[in-house]
Amino acid sequence: MYDEYGDITRTPEVSSWYGERPPDPDHLIHLCPECRDLMASAVSLARRLPEPRPEPDWTQALRWLDSVCGGRDAVLAVDAEPLSDDDLRVPDGVPAGHRQRLESCLTLLDAAARQFFDDEAGVALRRGLLRLYEREPGLVTGARSASQLALGVIWAVGHANGLLHPRGTVTEKQLRPYLNATQPASTLGHQVRDALSGPFRWSTPSRPWGYGGQPRDLEPLGHADLLVSGVRRQLMGVRERALAAEAREVVA
Q: Which of 187, 190, 215, 245 has the fewest beta carbons under 10 Å from its own?
């Protein structure tokens, strides 16, 4: 902080610091008159600069899509084809104990999808588990039980697809007894979400209200192939509207 108020040590009860006690002398940088004038000119110029232009809704919408899908290339490539389970199998060569945990959890996820969701949601859940094992195998093998792990995967992938309350209809109160899980879903769910998001956590802007934003929107994982076709169809609508608004602005 620089001193433009003279010697404040003489009358500490009176200052130009708008009711605040002036800073200690040791915390001040004393400027020569020329530097003080230069600093005052810079501050005066900054105050005259126009307010920054508000961010257009379409750029905010595209940044929101980036976080949900995993980057702009993924946003532009999103389609509404149903998820396929052709690639869903436990990798070869994994230790026997790891294979047992994965297969047990895959069975639970498949059963939960049939009970509460649909076949495509089951593909997203099972793919989420296998990708979690690729990213952080210790989180899979270190979970207290396959039931708790399955609930954590459902929490992360389910919120990414808007399947769970409050956006969806399925509640944790229904899932926990069905899976025989003893801990809250978010206990492991946050760790699953962070592992899937990767070392770069997606900074999620709010979706503009004009694009259908909600107080609790999709939980961003950054993987378009963990999203069911109904969700991706909605994302395509946001994308096309945002790109059209961008094109209009460029022309204008």
A: 215
Q: Chain centroid to CA 104: how far? A: 29
pLDDT tens digits for range 180-211: 999 999 999 999 999 998 876 656 667 777 77
Least confident of 88-97, 145-154, 203-212: 203-212
In the predicted structure, residue 151 carries a pLDDT above the cut 80: yes
Nearest alpha-carbon partner for 185 in 207, 204, 157, 209: 157
The whole-model pTM stands at 0.78
Decide: 140 and 102 in contact? Cβ < 8 Å. yes
Partnered with residue 2 across adjacent β-strands are 29
For 5, the token pair is: 């108020």
